[in-house]
# Entry
Amino acid sequence: MQDSMMELMWKNAHLYGGNLSYVEQLYETYLMDPNAVPQEWREEFDRLPVSAQNITQDIPHSPIRDHFLAMSKNKRRALPAAVASVSSEHEKKQIRVLRMINAYRVRGHQVAQIDPLKLLKREPVPDLDLRFHELSEADNDTQFQLGSLFFGPEEAPLRSIVEDLKKTYCSSVGVEYMHIVDTQEKRWIQSRMEPVRSSPVLEAETRKHILERLTAAEGLEKYLGSRYAGAKRFGVEGGESLIPCLDELIQRAGKEGAKEVVIGMAHRGRLNVLVNIFGKNPSDLFGEFEGKKTLETSGDVKYHQGFSSNVMTPGGEVHLAMAFNPSHLEIVSPVVEGSVRARQDRREDEVGNSVIPVSIHGDAAFAGQGVVMETFQMSQTRAYKTGGTIHLVINNQVGFTTSKKEDARSTEYCTDVAKMVQAPIFHVNGDDPEAVRFVTQLALDYRNAFNKDVVIDLVCYRRRGHNEADEPSGTQPLMYQQIKVQKTTRELYAQRLVDEGVLTAEDCKEMEQAYRKALENGEHVANALVLEPNTELFVDWKPYLGHQWSFEADTRVDIKLLQELGQKMCRFPEGFAIQKQVQKIYDDRLRMAAGAMEINWGFAETLAYATLLAEGHPVRITGQDVGRGTFSHRHAAVHHQKDASTYVPLQHLADDQPDFDIYDSYLSEEAVLAFEYGYATTMPNTMVIWEAQFGDFANGAQVVIDQFITSGEHKWGRLCGLTMLLPHGFEGQGPEHSSARLERFLQLCAEHNIQVCVPTTPSQIFHLLRRQITRPLRKPLVVMSPKSLLRHKQATCSLEDLAEGSFQPVIGEADKLDPANVKRLVLCSGKVYYDLYNRRAELAKEDVAIVRIEQLYPFPEEILGQTIAEYTNLESVVWCQEEPMNQGAWYCSQHHMRHVLQKHNPSLHLEGVGRPHAAAPAVGYISVHVEQQEQLVNEAING
# Structure
């Protein structure tokens, strides 16, 4: 983008001055004083790359860049030579000056005027005092070399150096960036801040636009406050600079070539952003305040709602998406990252410049919520990187009622967590909207230059309480004494423009009245809104809308294609050294593909992915051990034993195949599952899978499960086809490696919101996975996947089962029992079936039938009824589970089974058998485990 902009600027230089010498003179002036050139030219020159040695780097392949580079070098050579040092004492002082310069870069932010309320207590910073560096006022007129400072001349009086350092690092902007290891990044930031002293001169029209956006921000809050007094809206009052900040961010992103911006934010200012940035019609918002129903579902409160629209920018149309978000504050951040990665993958953008993620945080949540750290940790990983996220903290300086620093956090700033990924942090006074605009540009340009996260700490305040029904002075008396007399950001800025002759007071009043009139007329108030958007920028969900639940799905695959794919997914490059046990797995798979060996779980599962790829569906799988599989059953990613390179056979089935992405994730459940949810809600054609290392570990992502996966469709109309593979089964491995907490998922089941399945054969997982993506219905799928069944000699199938079968929600009796002789019926799910089956065989019990319920929700009542209808002489029916009886499927599924039995034989009573009620999911002693298993199996078979 920089290349094309510079080339365009060169070609059209006549528009700015008529000849090349004009451009040369502009650039020469810029080198000496960036504020002395017009704003639009300064922004173009700012984009030139920077190194630690020169203001510009070598920029090849362009005459103008070569010319500018030569000019830069010549200019610096033409500057007056430094006066030779005349004394060793002066040399010592020169070194002290350089140390002082570094101190301002490192610690200037600690005395910066970033608090609009002026209540922030800043401790003195000794490093910034002249005497600390053995300098004094007597040295003020002495000329010193500036060293690496980007202040223009090579030397200046000490007084001037200090004044410029204070303007740059201690005024409305306080920047933390010296923790960054990369010198190029630090020099880049210095080159953007120091030449303009963090305060670039703006054109009058730009300043008027900032005021207009502040007027919009304040105007909406005032209007809502008068029309819906006392109603919760979590207004942005006190942080109105958020609106011109986002406006500049989006317009600049579009100018730089972005096609989409995806925003996640909690409550504070959300309604204002939706109306003034996204262009939500004010009349629709008013309807929400008045309680009008808009969805045929449960719906959600107005400050959780998402939205999307298109706006026009200097670079063309940009699609905006606001992620839906519950009250769990920061949990939306990784959801946004997943949605952005999906959009970038759809655009085949490996760098991440076409779609920009923006996360807007509250200060208390940013410091307090662990998922913030998890999201930062994923920012540079292969599976989850998105080219850098712009984090914008609306820093109210209070969290609900907690404002004392010693209570709110253990760090100096709420943003200190961002230092873990060496993100630069720009603290900025929210009452200085021009400074806010400056750091917004800086943040976006840094993100685009280095593809890394960056943080804007918008230090402001909240004029009301936590919400508009709160009275905040009861807990923050001093803060709210100041807020009561504090002029609004708009008032302060309007007065500044009036004082400087940019506008008149009448102009400001007219601007305010025009906005209010637009609101009253129900007009759109986002300046750049595109009323007839380019639909190509949207994700097309039309094929997936309006489908009702059905158990039927055609998941058959031609057996010849199965054999062909089965062979291809076992091929490796010549000379690829495979580990001995892994080689045996692939040798066995070749035999399975040829029909010479029964098919096991790992082969059926990976073959399901191969068939989806062959049918044009991308596949994405992440989790902590998914390449190999926690239980060594998958081995989709194979490691060369000599050079440690990795080969994924499923990525090499055909030259034109869709993507097959499989990544071992870092050790997170909450952020990773939220990311995959965001991805799945954006890529409906892709099979998206998250596998837990053990199903128990999904506990760490319970917020995602509760607030998004199981309820997102009914709160927000948000469809999602995410699949969760949760290893589940009682194998004697103790409380934390047994249960995926099946009962919790079943408790969340209602309104056909999710699917919960417990497959027991390889053909079942094959057809279940294929059913999830080949039919147009998009519902989250929760699979209680096995552990010991992965290699169980009885848990096998044939190629014909894959070619001709389908997923069976209920599997009837496997043996040919005489239905008339069956007196006892055992219903079960999962691994316990094989224990029941084998115990019945040992006891030669021909009057006991065993039926597996493979799908627990939506519960297949009709299919179960058909399956057991032939057993006309039943005397008892029992449900058997491995889990304790206060867990598992018993409580949430028994009413379904009883309903079926009531239709079949009203006299039958359903009994339940399982482990004793327990606080923990399983015991920790193998002997007790075995004893319990024996008892529940015997009780189920014998009664």
About this structure: The chain has five domains: 2-78, 94-191, 204-537, 559-804, 810-942.
